[in-house]
Specification:
alpha/beta; Rossmann fold; 7 strands; elongated
């Protein structure tokens, strides 16, 4: 009688949990390091994942990928010590669409990325699809915000309102919002253009203006950059 074959249990996926807070005292809304760790441990137990380590970046911004904890977690993947990374939310990994794209291209095309809250698991085709959709939506949202901001600034500028620094030849009106002509600076600009047409250098123009008592807003001689702006060569 043929011997019974013992059923082999599928090999568990080994994962490293990555947790991060931008402030060491950030404890509300379930974002604290301990709260993140608890969620990751529960998630791994539920989905039969082998949690080999929990690595943290405490009090660290997501503005860069060059974080000690994150680089250690990625290093464990490349060293063959884990098969994937688990995070509570993608924003613990990074808030930058560009950085997430780099991580996917450089790392998570080969290794697994799992997110507890977004229910992302790139071990499956559907999980990879969800991640790509979320990345695309985030990129669209970023570009849409940029477009709306640009349109708002253009409208304010068309209405004569201040946008950023006050340009040469203009002054901030009494209401602190609108711009008005600055006669003294406009006279300086007119002279600067005339001197430039006569072949004078930026430095020489600045000297001529100072001789006629035309100075910048700090009471100093205009620098070459300011003269270039005045004559339209910046």
């Amino acid at each position: 009688m043929a011997s019974r074959r013992r059923e082999q249990k599928p090999e568990q996926t080994r994962v490293v949990g990555y947790i991060r807070v931008s402030s060491e005292h950030q404890v509300d809304q379930g974002v604290s390091l301990q709260a993140q760790e608890d969620k990751i441990r529960s998630y791994c137990a539920l989905y039969d994942l082998e949690l080999v380590a929990i690595i943290s970046d405490a009090g660290t911004s997501a503005k860069t990928l060059q974080r000690e904890g994150l680089q250690k977690a990625l290093g464990m993947l490349k060293a063959g010590q884990a098969d994937g990374v688990v995070v509570v939310k993608l924003d613990r990994l990074t808030r930058s669409v560009a950085d997430l794209g780099s991580l996917i291209a450089d790392c998570f095309n080969t290794y697994a990325l799992l997110s507890v809250c977004e229910q992302i698991d790139t071990r499956s085709a559907s999980g990879r699809l969800v991640l790509n959709v979320l990345t695309s939506v985030a990129q669209w949202e970023r570009e849409a915000i940029g477009e709306r901001t640009s349109q708002a600034l253009q409208y304010k500028k068309a209405q004569g309102e201040r946008v950023g620094t006050v340009a040469l030849g203009k002054s901030l009106s009494a209401d602190g919002k609108r711009l008005a002509d600055n006669p003294k600076e406009q006279q300086a600009m007119t002279l600067a253009k005339q001197y430039r047409e006569n072949g004078l250098s930026f430095r020489k123009i600045a000297t001529r203006l100072a001789e006629q008592q035309y100075f910048n807003r700090l009471g100093s001689v205009y620098n070459a950059r300011s003269i270039a702006i005045m004559v339209g060569e910046a």
